[in-house]
Specification:
The chain has 234 residues and is of the alpha/beta class. The protein has six helices and eight strands; from the N terminus they run βββαβαββαβαβαα.
């Protein structure tokens, strides 16, 4: 990270964490920051079935925390209640915890109720592989269509967190009635959480030098959106 002092530019460079050796999960011993989007009066998007994004994201974030904890990671939730947490504070929480990775969980929304699919967003080029690996594993677990892996996304925390891998998961479209129903289903939420854990493990495994699985975890898909959608403001 870079800080401007009264007389200089202070640059701090972090060394990469030491990953547990195989066959242990590469998540073991790491600190992961999990961000449930929105909260409190900032309800996010809503669906025709009356579900609010803020509630779905918190439910999934808690399940992701359970999955990561079971793999041996320490988890820091940027919010664990229905409260407002300012965008800059979410990044601060991750940095204060000295987190090794960051994932933000949201629901997408578009003007056309037929628009569907899961999408991964990242800001900085070094996070492309993290986001793309996550997309593949979420699709494998949930059978959702792919809406793509999109870079240069200007969401506050993933813009500010430049010294840890960070990305945003748009699980599916809450504006699509079918996908709204899926995301509000606790069993589907478990699948989503497991896909997120497996995406992290696969990405870290590639960093560790693990051999790729013989079978691809998901069918090929474009890394660009299928078609334009009205993206809500974060």
């Amino acid at each position: 990270k870079a800080e401007v002092t009264t007389s200089a530019l202070k640059v701090t460079i972090r060394r990469p964490p030491t990953l547990a050796p195989a066959p242990q999960s590469p998540l073991k011993g790491l600190t992961i920051a999990v961000n449930a989007g929105h909260g409190g009066r900032e309800s996010g998007a809503s669906g025709q079935g009356g579900n609010f994004e803020k509630n779905i994201t918190l439910a999934v974030a808690r399940k992701v925390a359970d999955e990561l904890t079971s793999a041996g990671a320490k988890v820091v939730l940027t919010r664990n209640d229905d409260i407002v947490v300012p965008i800059p504070r979410r990044a601060e929480i991750a940095m204060e915890a000295n987190a090794d990775m960051f994932v933000s969980i949201h629901c997408n929304s578009g003007g056309d109720i037929s628009t569907s699919g899961t999408a991964m967003f990242y800001k900085w080029p070094f996070n492309h592989d993290y986001a793309e690996t996550m997309r593949q594993h979420i699709i494998a677990r949930t059978d959702l269509p792919s809406f793509g892996t999109i870079g240069n996304f200007n969401y506050g925390p993933i813009r500010l967190l430049t010294y840890m891998p960070g990305m945003l998961v748009e699980q599916a479209f809450i504006s699509n009635p079918r996908e709204e129903a899926l995301m509000s289903d606790p069993e589907f939420q478990k699948k989503m959480a497991l896909g997120i854990r497996e995406g992290m493990e696969a990405y870290l495994g590639s960093v560790r030098g693990d051999k790729a699985e013989a079978a691809a975890p998901a069918p090929p898909a474009s890394t660009a959106p299928q078609k334009p959608a009205k993206k809500k403001k974060k």
